[in-house]
């Protein structure tokens, strides 16, 4: 009988994942990750980890499986929170959920599970894994979840073949309503619990309040750039130009308001600008943390919101399927996604001396430095990388 350690978050998805593994005959151990209890830096006034931990314990008792709590708060602070602060400080927008999976769940947590004698770890992610053999080598494929509204393969875009070899995703073939029905049918206390909207195993985060604890408010200008600015009429002659963000200065537009810190904003943001009186809503189209300036444009059709290519530096390229790298880096057609739940887009990959360029069939809205771009072959996620600018 093979042993599986399930990351019980206190939610319905991981609860049902554990139940299904018990039904399949695995020796299942439930483990709750305690990722934050540092009162010197408050994640949120609504940080429910204690409630989640208790719900996870009740699930384990209901299923009749052993239960452990593991404190990974030190690793979480070093690998996730410190990274978040630094990225926002320089005007980039990180994705802590992708990092949590790469650095915590499928690294530190996985290693603890293996020490307990487990062959696998399992989570409640809506994605699938298949395994095949290619030229005598075992290949693990990371596939989108069957539920198109809940597919979470994007969050696992930094996993390696080694990590996937020790991972199970029991609910990947199910739709969310089916998961809740199973939970209700077997009487799990998490059956009707709302989905978490916060950082993994932490809870809801009020990001501006969180960032202000280390990134102090500094007043600066909000500058509106007109949609007919001449810079937008310049043709994109090559990938380098197409992927380069527009470079604004205050002389390119009009100061329309003040803000309290450019590092609190992200590309494409609409809410929180506190600027009224414009015919169309204002969107953030540029951030300069060195001059502490936020640039905005009117309407979601503003040309400053769109790019037809992006760049991933060589050191930030990751292949979930290393065996496919040579197939796709020289003009290979792929499907791309640059944020969670975004519709997959037709795109191409191009490897150059500068790094990996991703070009799009149609211009893409809100390309954001620090986020992860992912590429798929049909429903298989085969690689990802951090958007450089």
Describe it.
By secondary structure, the chain is of the alpha/beta class. The chain has three domains: 3-211, Rossmann fold (3-Layer(aba) Sandwich), CATH 3.40.50.620; 220-300, no CATH class; 306-386, Elongation Factor Tu (Ef-tu), domain 3 (Beta Barrel). The chain is 24% helix and 29% strand. The protein is built from nine helices and 18 strands. The chain has helices spanning 12-23, 49-63, 73-89, 96-115, 161-165, 176-185, 207-211, 239-243, 325-328; strands at 3-7, 27-34, 67-71, 120-122, 127-134, 137-144, 167-168, 220-224, 254-259, 282-288, 293-298, 306-312, 317-319, 330-337, 345-352, 355-365, 372-377, 380-386. The strands form three sheets. Strands 5, 6, 12, 13, 14, 15, 16, 17 and 18 form a nine-stranded antiparallel beta sheet that branches. It is globular. The protein starts with a strand and ends with a strand.
Topology, element by element:
Layout: E1 3-7, H1 12-23, E2 27-34, H2 49-63, E3 67-71, H3 73-89, H4 96-115, E4 120-122, E5 127-134, E6 137-144, H5 161-165, E7 167-168, H6 176-185, H7 207-211, E8 220-224, H8 239-243, E9 254-259, E10 282-288, E11 293-298, E12 306-312, E13 317-319, H9 325-328, E14 330-337, E15 345-352, E16 355-365, E17 372-377, E18 380-386
Parallel strand pairs: 1-2, 1-4, 2-3, 4-7, 8-11
Antiparallel strand pairs: 5-6, 6-18, 8-9, 10-11, 12-16, 13-18, 14-15, 14-17, 15-16, 17-18
Helix pairs in contact: 1-2, 1-6, 3-4
């Amino acid at each position: 009988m093979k042993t599986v350690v399930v990351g019980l978050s206190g939610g319905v998805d991981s609860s049902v994942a554990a139940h299904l593994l018990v039904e399949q005959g695995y020796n299942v151990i439930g483990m709750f990750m305690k990722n934050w209890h540092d009162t010197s830096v408050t994640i949120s006034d609504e940080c429910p980890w204690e409630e989640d931990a208790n719900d996870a314990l009740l699930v384990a008792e209901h299923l009749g499986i052993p239960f452990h709590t593991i404190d990974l708060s030190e690793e979480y602070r070093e690998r996730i929170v410190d990274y978040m602060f630094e990225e926002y400080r320089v005007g980039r927008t990180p994705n802590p959920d992708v990092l949590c999976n790469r650095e915590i769940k499928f690294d530190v947590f996985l290693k603890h599970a293996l020490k307990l004698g487990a062959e696998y770890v399992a989570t409640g992610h809506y994605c699938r894994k298949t395994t095949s053999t290619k030229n005598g080598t075992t290949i693990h494929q990371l596939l989108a979840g069957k539920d198109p509204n809940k597919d979470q393969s994007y969050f696992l875009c930094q996993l390696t073949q080694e990590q996937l070899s020790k991972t199970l995703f029991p609910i990947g073939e199910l739709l969310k309503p089916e998961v809740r029905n199973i939970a209700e049918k077997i009487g799990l206390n998490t059956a009707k619990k709302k989905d978490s909207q916060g950082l993994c195993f932490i809870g809801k985060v009020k990001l501006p309040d969180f960032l202000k604890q280390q990134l102090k408010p500094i007043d600066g200008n909000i500058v509106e750039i007109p949609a007919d600015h001449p810079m937008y009429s310049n043709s994109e002659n090559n990938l380098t130009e197409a992927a380069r963000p527009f470079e604004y200065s205050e002389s390119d537009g009009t100061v329309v308001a003040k803000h309290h810190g450019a590092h609190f904003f992200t590309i494409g943001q609409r809410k929180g600008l506190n600027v009224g009186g414009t015919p169309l809503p204002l969107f953030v189209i540029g951030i300069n943390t060195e001059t502490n300036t936020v640039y905005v444009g009117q309407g979601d059709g503003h040309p400053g919101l769109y790019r037809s290519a992006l760049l991933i530096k060589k050191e930030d390229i990751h292949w979930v399927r290393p065996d496919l790298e040579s197939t796709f880096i020289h003009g290979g057609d792929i499907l791309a996604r640059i944020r969670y739940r975004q519709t997959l887009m037709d795109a191409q990959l191009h490897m150059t001396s500068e790094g990996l360029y991703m070009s799009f069939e149609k211009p893409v809205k809100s390309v954001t430095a620090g986020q992860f771009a992912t590429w798929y072959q049909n429903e298989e996620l085969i690689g990802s990388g951090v958007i450089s600018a």
